[in-house]
Structure formats: C-alpha cells, structure tokens
Specification:
The chain is mostly beta strands and 265 residues long. The protein has a single domain, classed as Jelly Rolls (Sandwich). It contains no helices and 22 strands. The termini are far apart. The N terminus is likely disordered.
C-alpha cells in the first residue's frame, strides 16, 4: 500500500481502549494493526477517495478484502476492469494490485490478514435478493436476528480472513447470545450507515456476564475484538450496521463455526 497514515491508537489490553475512530480525511489510513492495538494478526484500513481520485491498492504480505461502504468506483485489474457500487467488494491476495478511481466520493473499509499462499483475486457484487445460503444468511432469532452478507465466506479459498456485512433490526441486538472465539480468531467491527446522532452500543467483555466496556459507535468507528464477547445493540430507530473483519490465528482455524456462545447472559 502507498504510504498509509497510521491511527494514533493504543496497544492496551483494557477493553475500554478497544474503540478506534477512523479518519474521514482523504487517503489511505491504517486504523488497526498489531502495532497499535491488542490484535496480533488483524489489520483494518480505511480508504477515502474524492471524486476523480485514484489509488493503487497493494500489499506485499497481506491479503486484503476491500468493502465499498459508500460511493462508486471503477477498478482496474490485469484480469479485467469493472465498476463497484456501494456494498460491493474485492478480494486481493498479497503481491497483487488493483487501481481504483472514484466515480463519486467513495469510502472503503478494508480488512487485512497474513497471506499464506491461499486465495485469488475476485469481485463480489452485493445482492440483497440473493437466496439464503453460503453468502446471504440470517443469524439469531427475533428480536435479535441479524442479516449477514459475506464479502469473503469461508467456502472461498483464502489464507486467514472471513469477512462480511451485518445489519441488525432497528433498536435491537446483534451477535446475541454473546459469543467468543478467542482461541481461534480475532475480529474488528467497522460501523457504517449510522450517521450521528444515530448510534449503537458495542459491549466488550472477557468474562461471561461481566461487561467491561460499553462503546457508543456511529459511522466510521472501529472496535477491535482481540478476545471475549462482543454483542451490539442499536439505539431506538437505528440499526447496528457494520463490516466485520475476522482473522484466524492459524489457517486451519479459518472457520465461522468456532464461536462459543455464552447462554448465561
């Protein structure tokens, strides 16, 4: 990547330090990395492009999954060119590159994980009408059900990451009952479509039944999950909406099914 700007975060393990506001200024920003957070294997970036801006997305060691959360772009790759609209995404293995040009002001949230040689470039178009299956899913039960659209599902070959979008119902919980995947996976929730004064609450806990931090979140806020439980709830009239970046500690633990629920909360 070209000269990313690093967020001045903290590497502390205290859950009160796990919220990372992402910059809205033009350019590429490293919001979360092992250098500035308690995450050991996870990177989260934000790329802001004004209309007409161009950027070459590339990394020597990381696989990247870039999700367009606002705007429209043209994308050039040696395998072919295309246009991405809001909620479309692109997967890029380490050493590969794409050139992005903003047709309209655009914002990407981008997940990164170590590339172990597995995974090839592809684009994924968002389709709200896609039948339920590997990519489009419903998790949980009313009143805490959530809709999920995978940008990088576990059935697609990749090295460490599984990523996607989640939307909760208005004013309701997501990621409930609380669950954790500490031994196998880290995660970052990157919130969008929650313009202030709308907000959601992101709860962080390393011990079942004990809430250690409550983070009010709006569009652009990232919250890391290096360990522990991480339910969210939208404020009245707001949906908890986020792009989640899940990264396995080992390639063999790249699985969505490893979460362990805490039914005592």
């Amino acid at each position: 990547m070209k000269q990313p700007q690093t967020n001045a975060g903290t590497s502390g393990t205290d859950p009160r330090d796990w919220k990372y506001p992402s910059p809205d200024t033009p350019g590429m920003h490293t919001v979360v990395s092992p250098d500035n957070s308690a995450c050991r294997v996870t990177w989260a970036f934000r790329l802001n492009l004004n209309r007409g801006d161009e950027y070459e997305l590339f990394d020597k060691t990381l696989e990247l999954n870039a999700a367009l959360v606002d705007g429209e772009v043209e994308i050039e790759h040696h395998s072919g060119n295309g246009t991405l609209a809001k909620l479309d995404s692109a997967y890029l293995p380490a050493g590969d590159s794409v050139r992005i040009r903003a047709v309209r002001d655009a914002v990407f949230f981008i997940g990164g994980g170590r590339y172990d040689g597995t995974g090839e470039y592809f684009l994924r178009r968002f389709d709200a009408e896609m039948p339920l299956g590997e990519i489009h899913q419903i998790h949980g039960e009313p009143p805490y059900e959530r809709e999920v659209f995978m940008t990088l599902n576990q059935e697609v070959p990749a090295s460490r990451m599984i990523n996607g979008f989640t939307w909760g119902a208005s004013g309701m919980w997501t990621s409930w009952p609380p669950h954790q995947h500490t031994e196998d996976l880290e995660e970052v929730y990157c919130y969008f479509d929650l313009p202030s004064p709308k907000f959601a609450l992101h709860l962080s806990s390393r011990t079942p039944g004990i809430i250690e931090a409550v983070h009010p979140v709006s569009t652009g806020d990232f919250v890391i999950i290096p360990e522990g439980y991480h339910p969210t709830v939208g404020s009245p009239g707001a949906r908890s909406s986020y792009f989640w970046i899940m990264v396995a500690h080992r390639q063999e633990s790249r699985s969505y099914e490893l979460a362990k629920a805490d039914f005592g909360v």
